[in-house]
Amino acid sequence: MNKLRILLSNDDGVFAEGINTLAAVLSDIADITIVAPDRNRSGASNSLTLESPLRVRQIETNIHSVQGTPTDCVHFALNELMKDNLPDLIIAGINHGANLGDDTLYSGTVAAATEGHFLGLPAIAMSLVGRNHFDTAAQVALELVRNHIEKPLTTERVLNVNVPDCAYAQITSWEVTRLGARHHSESMIKATDPRGETIYWLGPPGKKQDAGKGTDFYAIKHNQVSITPLQVDLTAHDSLAMMAGWLSIESAK
Question: Where are the beta strands (DSSP E) in the chain?
């Protein structure tokens, strides 16, 4: 049986500890290709580079850095670098920090996985809720890949996986969760740069608003692996009939 082919990407950059730990652990059971940004692109979400060319550098065999976003990386990998031998699975991560609740909207890690989904491949976004136990998150990813080999993932969903920052033996369970939610972020931080110009920093994330049992926030608080299936269809299907009625009223005026 041929080895599984896995494409790895991230938003922390090609030299980040998370992606390289993941590659080392998975290389025993899969052929790994890394295509990742040349620097940290956290918060890039699903952005594409449209007004300048992508500069790609081969660092080692099967390791490429891209001067672009995480979405650019996966788009390049699947439409150019690997177009004649597509991977069986895409994993984005291991992210240096959480992608929980509404933070997933801004995440370059989730966006990289989503781009693979758009192009018809099963995809997983992996995040460590901290910066210490990347080995734990890599072991979780390994178990998920083994499960995928036995029972292939559907291409209709992206898995958003968050792993508590603890030793693997301290994980209490694996839970299928829904996204929680935060309050609005804190106020922006106003400062002055060395030239005397006013600058602004984004404020810290807001406090948790919806973090009860069943959410990804709750799972992480209790040392559980959180696995949230994400759908990309943003259509509010339960509002279609209501909107059709609203339009008919407006048209009658």
Answer: 4-9, 30-37, 56-60, 63-66, 89-96, 123-129, 158-164, 173-176, 181-182, 189-192, 198-201, 208-210, 224-230
Other residues' Cβ atoms within 10 Å of the Cβ of residue 8: 32
C-beta separation of 189 from 109 below 8 A = no
pLDDT tens sequence across 46-81: 888 888 999 999 999 999 999 999 999 999 999 999
Residue, of 204 and 149, whose pLDDT is higher:
149
Which tokens sit at 102?
Answer: 């509404």
Residue 207 has pLDDT above 80, yes or no: no
Q: Tell me how far apart the alpha carbons of residues 170 and 108 are, in angstroms, rounded to a whole number.
A: 28
Strands 158-164 and 224-230 come out as antiparallel
Estimate the crossing angle of helix 17-26 against helix 134-150, to 10 degrees.
40
Do 131 and 99 touch, CB atoms closer than 8 A?
no
Structure tokens at 221: 């608080």
Indicate if the pLDDT at residue 252 is higher than 90: no
Contact 73, 9 (CB under 8 A): yes
Distance, in Å, from the CA atom of 193 to the CA atom of 178, rounded to the nearest integer, reads: 41
Rounded CA gap, 136 and 170, in Å?
Answer: 10
